[in-house]
């Protein structure tokens, strides 16, 4: 466990997840998996709630669908919509207005502004991302995963990353189906 991350998460009950941490977790990114295990463990055990917007569902499904990997796209969908402790929020009037304010103030892209507005309006204690540009947002604490990474992507071969991904997705589905 990363002591620095553990410290940053202490007392945080609502964790808003940007799209990248979800992709890194599901695909078992070697550089980020050790960090994200702690985040998702807290959510799974009920020590924290995970939230995101439906923008995440849209974003995670695009690449698999483009590449004809419909099964992976459906895995993403099932995990996001049916995981214990994780909830997606739709874009509603109050979120759209907050997103517009954030976009104007910080020059965020529209999807990023929606993600951040979801975090703020839905009471997140922290926004977890791997995009350093979110550090500019002062209305909420931001954790950038790369600040806590202990392994760099180039330090592991593609073969081992692929094996880890398969194992982790299998574990996710088996744990989810246990009563």
Can you tell me about this structure?
The protein is α/β, with parallel strands linked by helices and 179 residues long. It has a single domain (17-176), classed as 5'-nuclease (Rossmann fold). The protein has eight helices and five strands, in the order αβααβααβααββα. It has helices at 3-9, 19-26, 33-44, 54-66, 70-82, 93-106, 110-121, 158-176, and strands spanning 14-17, 49-53, 86-89, 126-129, 141-144. A five-stranded parallel beta sheet has the order 3-2-1-4-5. Helix 2 (19-26) packs across helix 4, helix 4 (54-66) packs antiparallel against helix 5 (70-82) and helix 6 crosses helix 7 (110-121). It is globular and about 45 Å long. The model has no long low-confidence stretch (mean pLDDT 87).
Q: Name the CATH homologous superfamily.
A: 5'-nuclease
* CATH topology category name: Rossmann fold
Q: Name the poorly predicted regions.
A: none
Lateral arrangement of strands in the main beta sheet: 3-2-1-4-5
> What fraction of the residues are assigned to beta strands by DSSP?
5-15%
